[in-house]
Amino acid sequence: MNETIKTQLNHRTIREFKDERIPEEIFKTLMEVARRAPTSNGMQSCSIIRVKDNDKKAVVSEVCNQEYVKRTPELLIFIVDQFRNMMIAKEKGGNVDNARDMDRFFQGFTDACLAAQNVVVAAESLGLGTVYFGSILNDPQRIIDTFDLPELTFPVVGLGIGYPNQEPQLKPRMDMSLRLFEDGYKIFDNYLKAIEDYDKEMTQYYDLRDANKRVDSFSDQIVTKLYNPIIKRQEILKTIRNQGFDLKI
Fold first, then answer.
1. How many CB atoms lie within 10 A of CB 55?
2. Does the domain made of 3-168 have the CATH classification 1.10.10.10?
3. Residues 36, 38, 41, 45, CA torsion sign
4. If DSSP codes are grouped into helix, strand and coil, which group holds residue 172?
5. Residue extents of the structural domains in the chain
6. Contact at 8 Å (CB) between 198 and 219?
7. I want to staple 153 with a disulfide (CB 3.0 to 4.6 A). Which of 34, 109, 149, 210 is the partner?
8. Lowest-confidence pick of 148-152, 174-178, 233-237
9. 109, 154 in Cβ contact below 8 A?
10. Which helix (H) or strand (E) holds 234?
11. pLDDT tens column, 76-135
C-alpha cells in the first residue's frame, strides 16, 4: 500500500487548526492540483474563491452555524462557474442560450466537487488537515451576495485547510457490502439488521465537537436529521433559478 492510500484511509475531519499560515508556495501547489482536476467536456466550469477577509469569514461562519470557520487558516469556496464560458462565447458571437441549462449547471457542480477532493488528497499528503463546509448551502443566497457571485455561478462547497491542532478519532464507516452492488441496486430485507453492527460501532465514537459525549447510533442520526430540515436548503432550486439557470421540469 502506498503512502497516498494510507493517508486517504486515515482521513479525519479537522476543525481546529494551529495559528499558522500555509506557505504560499504550498498553496500555489494545491491550486495547481485543483487546476489539473478532471473536468466535464474539458470546459473547466468551476472556480474558487479564496476567502481572506475576516468579515467575510464571519459571514460564512454564521451561514454554516460553525464558529470555528472563522479560525480556518485557508478558507476556499468552490463554485459552479458557467459565467466565464458564457462571456467567452458571447465575445466570440456565439449562441449563449444553452449556457443556462441544467446540463451545464451539473457539469460545473461536478467539476467543483472533483477539484475540491483533489485539493483535499494533496493537502493531506503534505501533512495538512482539511474540513468540508457543505453547510454553506444553509443559505446559498447570502454566500452569493457576500462574494458578489454573478449569474450562472453557484456555491457548491467550502473547504478549510491548515495545520491540524487536534487528533480526532477515526470516524466509523458502514461496511461496503451496504454500498457496493454488482450489476444493479441491492435492496435489503431488513436495513436495521444489516446495519446492526455499524450502529453499535458508531455509539463508541466520540466527536470532538462534544468530546465527553458519545454519538447516537447511525440509524438514530438518520431519524433526527429527517426531523430537522433546514428551510433555506429546501429552497435551493429557487436560488439556482435566480442565478439564471433554466430549470426545465
1. 8
2. no
3. negative
4. coil
5. 3-168
6. no
7. 149
8. 233-237
9. yes
10. helix 231-234
11. 999 999 999 999 999 999 888 888 999 999 999 999 999 999 999 999 999 999 999 999
